[in-house]
Every structure is written in C-alpha cells, then in structure tokens.
Amino acid sequence: MKILLLGPNGQLGWELQRALAPLGELHCRDRHQGGDLADPQALATMVRALRPDLIVNAAAHTAVDKAESEPALAECLNTTAPAALALVAAELGAGLLHFSTDYVFDGSGDQARDELAPTGPLSVYGRTKLAGEQAIAASGCRHLIFRTSWVYAARGGNFARTMLRLAAERDRLTVINDQIGAPTGADLLADVSAHALRRWLAQPELGGLYHVCASGLTSWHGYASHVIEWARERGQPIKLAPDQLLPIPTSAYPTPAARPLNSRLDTQRFQQAFGLRLPDWQGGVNRMLAEILG
Ligand code: NDP
Q1: Which residue segment(s) compose the domain that 188 sits in?
Q2: Strands, E, within the chain: which ranges?
Q3: What pLDDT, in 10s, does the model give residues 92-149?
Q4: Residue bearing the CA closest to ligand 1, atom 27
Q5: 54: in domain
C-alpha cells in the first residue's frame, strides 16, 4: 500500500511518520516537496502523479489568531486544499484521512458533543476547518475525518513548556479556567489513527466522521497546575508558589479569535467502531513532561 503523508513536520505529522511507517510504503511531502496546501492545483497534480492508495492530511492553517487576519490563506489551506485532495482521492479510488477540530462548535453548554451535534464555529479557523470537512464529505471519496482537541507534542514549543518557563521565572501566574477540554498527545492521535486505518481498510463501511481525543477533562488552569506540580515534585526549578497559580476567565484574556468554552468531545462512536480505548489525558502529558525535562 502506498501512503502519502502531508504536513509530516507538524506535531501530528511527525508522530504519523512513525505510526504509519509499518502500514505500507510511506511518502512524505511537505510544502517544499509538492505538498503545498497554498497551491491546491499543484498539490492535485503531485497526488495524481504519485497515485497513493491512502492520503493522510496532517497539514493545516493552525494559527488560530493569525487566521483572523489572513482568512483567504486559512480558507485555501483548510477548505480548498482538502477539497482538492478529496476530489483526487475520489478520482484515484484512494482513501483520505483528514483531521479537524472541536473549534467547529460554538462551545456553549457543559455537555460533551457527539458527531451529530450542531456546529457553529466562532472563528475563521473553525469556519474554514468545518468547510473542509463538508467538502470532503460531499466529494464522494472514501474518507475518515477525526475531530480532535488541544493537541500537544514533546517536539517544539507547547503549552507545558511555556508554563514551566513562566513558573520558573514568576511569583504569580494567571491561566484561563473556563475553557474545558482534553489535552491530546500527537503520539496518541497518530497511534490510534494507524490502528483505525487498519480496521477501516478491512471494513470500508467504518468510514466517516469521528471525535478522537484523550479521555477525561480539564481547564487550561488545571492543565498548567498538573504540569507545574509534576515538575515541582521532581525537583525542577519552580519559583511559583502553588497558591499563586491564579484562575482567570477567558473574558480577562482577549484574543483575536474567540475560543469555544466547552471543548468536550464525546468519543464513544470512535472507541466502539474501532475497538480502541482512549486513555486519560494525564498519562500522555506525564510522558511528554518526562521527555522534555529529560
Ligand atoms: P501543526 O501546526 O503542528 O502542524 C501543521 C502542519 O501544517 C505543519 O507541518 C506545517 O508545515 C503544515 N503547513 C502549514 N502551511 C502549509 C502549507 N501551505 N502547505 C503544506 N503544509 C503546510 O498542527 P498540528 O499537528 O497540531 O495539527 C494537525 C491537525 O490537527 C490539523 O488538521 C489541525 O487543524 C488539527 N487540530 C489541531 C489542534 C491543536 O491543538 N494543535 C486541535 C484540534 C485539531 P511547516 O512545518 O512547514 O510549517
């Protein structure tokens, strides 16, 4: 099986390089290797020439705030390019695995949303990602779309690193406590994607849209507290006293793009369809901390 991976150097793409390698002949294409989502026509030409059996798209415009001031680029990367990929996939009879986000929802209420819940994106990023999902579904190609949330990876900058740096420097730190979700490791997402792909190849009727994230819930404040206390217990240089990590509402930290307050995703459909268990978020975060702190 010939697999094309787009966005191989992002958080998820990097882990997919590892997780997909045993499934077949893996071809990675970043934006300098014919995999530029900003040029959907050239992208389609590259895919036609390669003729993969499976396309995995881990590339996207993920800079949520920046997308507000460059909506045309966000639309091209998150909607037009996935639509073009879906059309070539349909033409070639290839499967397409694509990733989307909880930001397709408005984040109201306090219940977990399943795949049938009404969407209502609050931002350019959310709107363009939703339109990408819809274009793939409308294309008629065989596809899987995994909506996930709060993705982190040991590689590169991440929220945990930022919290550890600030906790080492400051006496007082404020972190948002009214956005609720599940921090999801790119490694977990890549691994369950590979398992699900194998099941899907044997059972094509499993295609469609799924919510996939770690189990359990926290806020950004809860996440920061977990990270800082983990590091403190292991003798890392933490200056911040435990009672000086202060919760603040989202309204006290305005950003160009509005974020959903409720990012709870119901993952039952995914776990049942693919016979997989999504572990609690803390285990993955602890592993990532052990990696970045050495
Ligand atoms: P990253 O920002 O880590 O990676 C995005 C990738 O897209 C990078 O490899 C980047 O390439 C690539 N990219 C950007 N512009 C282009 C372009 N013009 N052409 C080709 N590639 C491009 O994102 P994640 O790994 O975190 O996200 C993976 C998927 O998960 C995305 O679909 C995202 O929407 C979704 N998601 C992410 C969440 C998160 O919290 N991060 C939450 C929910 C969903 P380069 O390395 O060259 O910059």
Answers
A1: 2-156+183-215+265-279
A2: 2-6, 25-29, 54-57, 95-101, 142-148, 151-152, 173-176, 180-181, 184-185, 208-211, 218-219, 245-248
A3: 999 999 999 999 999 999 999 999 999 999 999 999 999 999 999 999 999 999 999 9
A4: 12
A5: yes
